[in-house]
Design goal:
By secondary structure, the protein is an alpha+beta fold. The chain is built from 13 helices and ten strands. The strands form two sheets. The protein has a six-stranded antiparallel β-sheet with strand order 1-2-9-4-7-10. The chain has a four-stranded antiparallel β-sheet with strand order 3-8-5-6.
Length: about 300
């Protein structure tokens, strides 16, 4: 059972009542498994009727609020389990493995994904008094992935956003206001300091974000640490240390995951053979590509293409 916070927020709905209405409304909105985009830009609903295997993917900056069920995200060797009591925030693009661990046809996994709008956060930070913007507890680490406790004020804003799906004529006007409040609630929440850091001019998070942008744009090219360090205005050793503090992996490991996931997309979506996909993403050695692909996905790349032929 969800713990009610009506005594903490006596002027509004308790967390239990908010959650009950939210579950009902989301279930009415989505009847098909998968990612269901909504008419509201930057807002999607995920539905799955069964647990899933651990699946590597790239999470773009977003807020994930579970309505029903549970999911875990794995970053390197760190596990983050999120559920209706705890929401997930990804503040930078990260290669993560995700797995739905609680779902059934009767109680499908339901999750709301809200894209993080860095420009909106910047506007909020400019308007907030410094003591409010920095009121959250200092983070114990610098990870660009974290969990925070779901609060009644946050859930209230989320509920108003979902209600707008029933009134599309109002959504164009009111949805931006609800999204703005959701950003505000996360920003001033227990770990909102990390979003503050994301927007700090030339701060550590901004520097690492620049490196990530460069890696995503040129993932298929040979990695030159000196070039990445110059983009971050850091020494090579400082970049390696700070990049790992934020992403839990080195720049080389980050690039490798981007390459392998793009190769998998090329094989599954465009029908490329394994050797061609590996070469396309920057691998010169087919054996190295196959070895690293199997290590990440649990099966050799040839198995993917053979499965596609069977299907």
């Amino acid at each position: 059972m969800l713990e009610s916070t009506a005594t903490i927020y006596p002027t509004g709905m308790g967390l239990e009542a908010q959650h009950a209405e939210l579950t009902h409304r989301v279930q009415r909105q989505v009847a098909v498994d998968g990612v269901n985009e909504t008419p509201i830009p930057g807002f999607a609903i995920m539905r799955l009727s069964a647990p899933t295997p651990l699946q590597p993917t790239v999470y773009e900056p977003c807020i994930c609020i579970v309505v029903q069920g549970r999911k875990q995200a794995v970053l390197a060797d760190e596990y983050y389990v999120y559920d209706p009591l705890n929401y997930l925030v990804v503040s930078m693009a990260l290669p993560i493995s995700g797995q739905v661990i609680e779902a059934s046809p009767e109680r499908p996994y339901l999750c709301l994904r809200i894209d993080i709008d860095a420009a909106e956060i910047n506007k909020l930070l400019q308007q907030l008094p410094l003591n409010v913007a920095r009121a959250s507890s200092p983070p114990k680490d610098n990870r660009a992935l974290f969990l925070a406790r779901t609060s009644a004020p946050l859930l209230d804003a989320v509920l108003r956003l979902v209600r707008l799906l029933d009134t599309p004529e109002e959504a164009a006007i009111l949805a931006p206001l609800a999204l703005r409040e959701i950003h505000y609630r996360v920003l001033t929440g227990e770990l909102g300091q990390r979003l503050c850091d994301l927007c700090a001019i030339d701060g550590q998070a901004q520097r690492i974000a620049r490196v990530i942008t460069l890696l995503k744009a040129r993932y298929d090219e040979p990695l030159r640490m000196e070039e990445l360090a110059a983009a971050a205005h850091l020494s090579v050793s400082a970049l390696h240390h700070r990049f790992k503090a934020v992403t839990a992996m080195s720049p080389l490991q980050y690039q490798k995951q981007l390459r392998l996931q793009e190769a998998r997309r090329l094989m599954l979506s465009e029908g490329l053979e394994a050797a061609a996909a590996g070469h396309r993403v920057g691998y010169e050695s087919p054996s190295q590509f196959s070895r690293e692909y199997r290590r990440l996905f649990g099966a050799p790349p040839r198995a993917e293409t053979q499965r596609q032929r069977i299907i």
